[in-house]
Amino acid sequence: MSISLAVEEGDDNGLFRLVARKEAVRAGTSWLSPETLMAASLSRFYDAHEACLIQVAGGPFTMVTTIPSTRLDRPIEAFHIMPRVISMIGALRDHYKPVLLPNDRYAAVLAGRDSHPDAFQMMGMLNGSQALRGERVLLVDDLFVSGAHMQSAAYTLFKAGAEEVVALAILRLIVPSAWHENRRSIWQEASDQPFSFDRCCLCAAARRW
Question: Which of 20, 29, 185, 207 makes the best surface tag, with the fewest CB within 10 Å?
Answer without folding.
Answer: 29
